[in-house]
Structure formats: structure tokens, C-alpha cells
Specification:
about 150 residues; alpha+beta; five-stranded antiparallel β-sheet
């Protein structure tokens, strides 16, 4: 009953329709929001990996100029971390959804090591990252949407 004394009736199907439409609206919103969140996570992982590769380049140059008297590069991330030139990765060569690995060329007859390479590949392609990265002693970071990055040397 209303304030003026008249009776009102509501359709028994109206609340059900409202619930159905609300549910559909929530599903549509999720279909839009979830992929957007996934893309932003991939982008964040890729950006963090690029940052890590830049730090590795700087650590390698610092290693070469101070520790190795300009004659060689470090052969592993652990070697750089042990000297405090790079923060240790939380898990074995894994950071921000990527597997990261560096290696140095074999020593020359005089014991020097002229070049090094580094790669970063997604732990789960399409979920933790879409791009693969490659860096070497030139300091240039290259990327590809597949594992065929090539070598600059």
C-alpha cells in the first residue's frame, strides 16, 4: 500500500530479470577487464626484464673494468651477484616471469674474454610474456616475438 492508500503491484518476473541483466553486465565487464589486466601484467613483466638486462649490461662493464682489468666478462649471473654488481635473482635465473641467462665466449689464448651474450625468455609464453630478449657486449637489447633473435656478432 502507498501513502495515499492505493495498492501497488509489482510484476513477479521483474526482480528475476534484474538479476539476470545484472549478471550479464558483470560477465561482460569481466570479459573486458580480465584481458586488459593480463596484458598489463605481460607489459609489466617485459618492462622489468628490459630493466634487468640494462642492469646486467652495466654490471658486466663494471666487472670488466674493475674486477677483470679490462680483459674479460663474467660468465654467469651468480658471478656478478657474488661480487655485489647485480642483485641476486630470487629464483634460479628467474625474474618477473622470465628465465634469464648469460654466458661469455671461451677465453682467448691470452685469457681474455672479448664478448658475452644474454637471453631472457618467458617462463610461460603468452602468460608471463610475449617477447624474447637478447643482449650482448654491445649493450644493445634486441627483442622478438619468437626465439629467433639472431646474434649481432
Amino acid at each position: 500500500m502507498t501513502v495515499d492508500g492505493t495498492e501497488t503491484t509489482t510484476s513477479p518476473g521483474k526482480p528475476k530479470r534484474l538479476i539476470v541483466w545484472s549478471g550479464l553486465a558483470c560477465i561482460l565487464a569481466a570479459l573486458v577487464v580480465i584481458p586488459s589486466l593480463m596484458r598489463s601484467r605481460l607489459t609489466a613483466n617485459e618492462s622489468a626484464t628490459i630493466g634487468l638486462l640494462k642492469k646486467i649490461v652495466m654490471a658486466q662493464e663494471q666487472y670488466r673494468s674493475t674486477v677483470a682489468d679490462g680483459k674479460r666478462y663474467a660468465d654467469s649471473l651468480q658471478e656478478l651477484a657474488a661480487l655485489g654488481l647485480l642483485a641476486p635473482l630470487p629464483e634460479r635465473n628467474r625474474a618477473s616471469g622470465y628465465y634469464v641467462l648469460i654466458s661469455a665466449d671461451p677465453p682467448l689464448p691470452d685469457g681474455s674474454i672479448a664478448n658475452w651474450d644474454g637471453i631472457a625468455v618467458p617462463l610461460v609464453p603468452g602468460k608471463t610474456g610475449n617477447l624474447c630478449f637478447y643482449v650482448d657486449s654491445s649493450g644493445v637489447i634486441r627483442f622478438s616475438s619468437n626465439a629467433n633473435l639472431g646474434n649481432s656478432r
